[in-house]
Amino acid sequence: MPHTWHTRAETGADIPVVRDIVRAAFPAPEEAALVDALRADPGAWIEGLSVVAVDDADRPVGHALLTRCHIGEHPALCLAPVAVRPGSQRSGAGAAAVRAALAAAERLGEHHVVVLGHPEYYPRFGFTRASAHGIGLTIDVPDEALMALTLDAAHPLPAGTVRYAAPFGI
Fold it and tell me: Comparing C-alpha atoms, which of 154, 158, 134, 155 is closest to residue 146?
């Protein structure tokens, strides 16, 4: 029987746990350092868009982060990273955190989200190939890896080059 994950916005007490989750989920420490740098960047960080999936004891096991970026001159959000403790991967914890983060962004009136990630995973949330909308990057990545999503059909995705927050180094 699939687990039903609860989600909530990250709290200050969750910061070290989120760091541990990201370190455990990625082979290199750069992803955890990126989350810390984004948290410290007032131009990137948006309160309430760092979301954790928690177990029945309210311990975070998964994390999804949305931070400010731009598509051309249009404000957008970047989904990265998404991380789940190795023992809870493939349990739906990551998907629950992503869905909760996207719903929180929509409640805040955000319209567009981009993700650079696995093309087999992110379409389940509504992401489509960004190039089909005229969205690109300044670096070379596989075309299918850059995806975009509009949270509001009244605001179609704008064309343009994605400008990430400075901590991404892109």
Answer: 134
